Queue: 4 jobs
Job 1
Amino acid sequence: RRTVFRRALRIVTLCTLATAAFALVPNRDEEGNFLLGVVDNQWRFWALFLVSVIGLGLFWLLLRRGRKAPQRFAGLLLAGVVGFSFFYGSVHISIAKYGQWQHDLEYPQRTWGEVSELNALLPDDGFYRLDAYECYNNMGIWLDRSCINCFHSTVAPHILEFYPTVGVTRDVNSKPELDLYALRGLLSVRYTIVPKEEVDSFEESAMSCWKLTDTTEHYALYENEAFVPMGFTYEYYITEEEFGAIPEDDRANILMKAMLLTEEQIAAAPAALQPLPEDTLDARSYEDYLDDCAARRTNAVTTFTATRTGFTAEADLEEENLVFFSVPYDDGFSATVNGEEAEIWKVDNGLMAVLAPAGYSEIVFTYRTPGFAPACAVTAAAWGVYAVYAVALWRRRRLTAR
């Protein structure tokens, strides 16, 4: 056992010391200047390296002490792990978090501290999404409202498919640049929350459709006058080949004109959807976008309501067509149209649509976590097996005691 510990310690020590190469190899920056190492911050790297070496030294001391008092080794090891965890945590917070002190200083007041004031200004006259410009993360969650930075409290897998195709990086959250203005129309963004110190920057970059409506202690609230309600239809579709040839920054503009369909979907598409004309494909100006917003508003559903289990909508169509919803596609969704089960189409690289007939339609989307019901059944069965085992064990002990 002693040999195994020593061998493991040697291997870990060798691997730890080898990481020093990251800070010592010759390198050059983008301008060709000589640099030492490939790490972003030398002192931070060496501080963490030193902590690792201290941890190795501590374990070596515990091994030596454990040989002299084997009966105390477990207690010494536990004390070492707890103490070193506290030490490492302190170093990590000092290096990684204290630098954010000024940035996070007003976090409580600018998030939950201002929720009631912001919600008092935001109307409850229908569903819409928010955008948060240069704000702390998760403003939509604090306000309990849908936000394009985080659609909900989890990351839907297909939003990772959709966002990169329209020029948006998806990491901890999504922060589309202001020049992707058409994305706000596609995703039904009605208000943008802007910190007061960022108002000049926002107004310099934002399009003319954003108008200041109100302010709070720390924020300015802008309304999108080109707002498009959730749920609408199109007259045109675009193929994947055509869509792929468009620059990423212009793709949201095209998605305001036409629905992106696969070849298989095009074959099954209703007659109301026609190929996007070439001259329309090239119309990507801001004025064209405003015209597209007006067209989508004209073809919007009459009502849209978010529910605890999904959402419902009512549509009154002149002819059979696909009704588009900018909700991330998920296998857990099911849909009915006028009470009958309907197929959910995955369109626009990760969003949803459903086929509705001419005239009035009631559309209901319901979400159930995939695998949740079988998991509950397995859990219940496991508890049953455990109960039988516990009773059998109890009876066996009683018989043994007699």
Job 2
Amino acid sequence: MKAPVKHHYVPQFLLRNFADAKEQLVVHRLDQSGSFPAVVLKTGHRNDGHTLYGPSFDGGKDRTTLESMMSGLEAKAALVISELASPAGASELSEEHRHVLRWFAGLQTARSRFTFGYISRQAEQEGGPIGLTREETQTGLLMASTRSHLDAWMASKDPDSHYKDRYSPFGSELMAFRWDLVRFKQPSLVVSDAFAAQSGIRVEQRHKYHPVQKNWAKHGIGVPLNESARVTMALTPTLGVYLHRGTTKKALKAEAFNRDSVYAAREFVAHAPGWESSKPLLSKSMAGNLDLQRMLRVAMAKNF
């Protein structure tokens, strides 16, 4: 059986949560104005985006190793989100819920096409390796970032593994936040290519940043995770996770949740058909945020 070519960096299970019964979405890309209909299968993917290349692989390429490793973590995340979204879902996140979601959030960061594009550009500007093909560059990025994260995830399931072997920089930083579930009575949230949307600067660190930097921080730019104010994760149109620096449970309005998702997006924002007409105020707010994000996106590194 031929290995699939479409490799989703935004998993299909997550997109399905925001699509209609026919797996239809309305997609707003950041590199163009307007929106268009799309199916889940054709959203958030790159052909051969997770393929490893090299003479050691059969036929010079390996399309299955990373995809297989990713599917195991994605399945765990899908199960956790399904449990939380069920009518009898928990009101609080358990340690197991947080464990799986922070590893999944780490995966989304470790395979981010924007992150890969940023690293590639920085390497070029600093006189990095010259003459590498795109396939060689992709393989290096995937092995250094994605494979390392997945290996750590596998090690985390072994209680006898060494701490350094199961360490996830992104996931470990998320443990410093308070995690709160936020539920909405009606479908209110949108999804973007950024699962864990970082925003703002924590109060005790704000004096270190000037006004322009504070504005960029709203878009997840220029501030390390350990100095950020909050992180949001949209799980379904009616369910999200709000990570903040407080010590007591907090809620977050849908408008602010969606703003974070849009500002963290680097490629697209999506929702089910009919969402805009059913939520005109949220739709209007999102449209304004999209306009700003599209304008700022041209100043950021291109996706790989």
Job 3
Amino acid sequence: MGSVRRHALLNAPAQEVWEFIGRPGALHEWFPITATRIEGDKRWITLPTGIVFEEDILLVDHDLRRFQYAITNNPLITSHLGTYDVIELTPTTCIVVYSTNVEPEVFALAIGAAAGEGMRFLEKKYGIPKNEGTR
């Protein structure tokens, strides 16, 4: 199984960041995809190539500021769990941690690259604490 984790330290309160990225139907606003559609606990994302992935929304926890999902009904991906958390560091800073476990492991490379783009977008939107950045 391939695993990937990306994070970004942000100059913004955790709740403010969560209100932006914690909406399952708004992934396309900060992640490198072109569209998102929600029906109940299902989400479909459209990649820039036009490929559509179906996902099960497993958890939207507003207290923990955690979102979890799994790619489903995909003949190429046999197992997947994606998670992102928004964790308060101080009242005015937070860290966003995005992680994915996926099989076959080669897909971790593509998901990791996309997650890195998403983290860079958040850094541009909110700013980063001095001497910090995407990891």
Job 4
Amino acid sequence: MECDAISQPELMLIEGQSSLRNPSGPCGSELLLAGDVSGVILVHAIDRDYFEGFEELKLPIPSIEEEIKLIASYGKKTIAVCINSDNKDFDTQALADQLDLPVVNPIFENVVPIIKVIKETILQ
């Protein structure tokens, strides 16, 4: 990648555009593989039951655990989870304990746990 060759950054963040299983088309696997990512921060729309734009087809959004397993099947490690939710009362700590991963709702919570895990796992 030209950016890497010219800038030689210590860290590159690659923003995904959609879920790995989004029915609107391929979005994530190419980034995981072609980008040769060192870790994944999974963003999950916890308040939605179905993929946006496909509600009438009732295409369910897989659970966070299923998405983490799918990411692992590509040989990539999920290092943290961000919750996409307008619910400021969502219990991210309970989910973090369940997954044994840092979990934050970046709309309402400090993202320091995400920065910390990036430093510990990728920038070591």
